[in-house]
Design brief:
Structural class: alpha+beta
Strand order of the largest sheet: 2-3-5-6
Number of strands: 6
Largest sheet: 4 strands, antiparallel
Shape: elongated
Strand content: 5-15%
Low-confidence stretches: 1-19
């Protein structure tokens, strides 16, 4: 294949790849991630399963139909050949089982929220990393442009005999460094976009940092928002329900039966039977299960108290980092403006021989460092916002 054809094919492939990439906002990326990630779908299915299980646990005791036949009535005269029996939940076994199902639903909801919170933090962090990589790549391109302009200016002065050739060599080194940095930044951008696309589940691109809306919350709201605390609360509910079920293991069982006389008898007779069964001795099973469930509930309460205290400290730390990151953004923006003005003045001053080449290069390097510092401060702010959302248990609203 000819070189021209090779370049043409490469151009077609690159155009197709760019067409497949979509530039998305953070909310859209989160929506796609929630819709495409199998981990979210698995958590949703577990929640559906818990709800179905709760319907089964909360169902009333089943009605049973007995149909039998025996050739000798003398063997057992107490059995009916046709009978229907309906247990009566007089002591609340159904309600206790239903409470167990409610606890399982709470657990599944907490697990789903935990998956969504983790996914949200990962997407925000990778989205911010990609935005930072793009900003650094743009910064590197601007630095290369400045270095190219400086190189062209120095070359003109060298050609006119106003500067020695060594000055051009020095500026050429800076230009080569700028080109290398630009290539590296673009490679980092592509790698970051690939990681983000893997998280979201589709090829996507990022233009700039997202403007996150972070609401500062009262620490008292943490137990109702953080997934780990909700999970421990569901364990308490489950243990309390197990306690009720264990206690009812020693309760009597009431049943109403409708019976028919044996098939061999010519005169068909029907009657009702109310039967109450008492467990006399379960060898300590009910008592042991009740004590175990109570101990489990107490352990979960202590774990919840400890986790709540840690969560409050994490929330306070995240708030401190968020405030510091917001303050750094404002300071860096002012520094970058001054650095850009200094570079422009230095370039004009060098052209007019008011300053040296070294001073011009130093001002250019200072601009590069301050602009990179501004990008890094924006990245720190985005990650601080993500950390606060995670510490507070907040989930961002996304379009459906």
């Amino acid at each position: 294949m000819k070189p021209i054809a090779l370049f043409a094919c490469a151009a077609v492939v690159l155009t197709a790849a760019q067409a497949q990439e979509q530039t998305l906002q953070l909310s859209q990326a989160l929506a796609f991630a929630r819709a495409n990630r199998p981990s979210v779908q698995a958590a949703q299915l577990r929640l559906t399963s818990a709800r179905l299980s709760r319907r089964g646990l909360g169902a009333y005791p089943a009605t049973r139909l007995f149909i039998g036949y025996q050739n000798n009535l003398a063997l057992d005269g107490t059995e009916a050949d046709l009978a229907i029996a309906q247990p009566i939940d007089l002591f609340g076994r159904t309600a206790a089982s239903k409470a167990t199902g409610d606890a399982e639903i709470l657990r599944a909801q907490a697990e789903l929220q935990a998956v969504l919170a983790l996914l949200q933090a990962d997407v925000i962090d990778e989205f911010s990393e990609a935005a930072a990589a793009r900003a650094l790549a743009q910064n590197a391109a601007q630095i290369q442009e400045i270095a190219q302009r400086l190189y062209d200016s120095i070359r003109t002065l060298v050609d006119e005999g106003k500067l020695p050739g060594v000055q051009l060599m020095r500026v050429g080194i800076e230009l080569d460094r700028a080109k290398l940095a630009n290539g590296q930044r673009n490679a980092e951008l592509q790698a970051s976009l690939q990681r983000l696309s893997g998280l979201v589940g589709m090829a996507m691109s990022v233009e700039a940092f997202a403007e996150l809306s972070v609401n500062v919350i009262d620490p008292a709201r943490l137990p109702g928002q953080r997934a780990d605390l909700l999970l421990l609360a569901s364990e308490i509910r489950a243990a309390e329900a197990e306690t009720r079920v264990a206690k009812l293991g020693a309760a009597p069982e009431l049943e109403i039966q409708g019976r028919r006389s044996p098939w061999q008898e010519r005169d068909q007779q029907y009657g009702l039977r109310i039967q109450l069964g008492f467990p006399i001795n379960d060898f300590g099973k009910s008592r042991a299960e009740t004590a175990a469930a109570r101990t489990k509930a107490e352990a979960a309460r202590k774990a919840l108290a400890d986790a709540t205290r840690i969560a409050e400290s994490e929330l306070a730390a995240a708030r401190t980092n968020l405030s510091a990151a917001q303050e750094q953004i404002q300071r860096y923006q002012a520094i970058v403006q001054n650095a850009r003005a200094l570079v422009e003045k230095s370039r004009i001053g060098f052209t007019e021989k008011a300053i040296t080449l070294v001073e011009l290069l130093e001002s250019t390097r200072a601009l590069r460092e301050t602009e990179e510092g501004l990008v890094e401060s924006k990245l720190r702010l985005a990650k601080a916002q993500s950390a606060y959302l995670k510490a507070s248990g907040q989930l961002l609203e996304v379009p459906k």
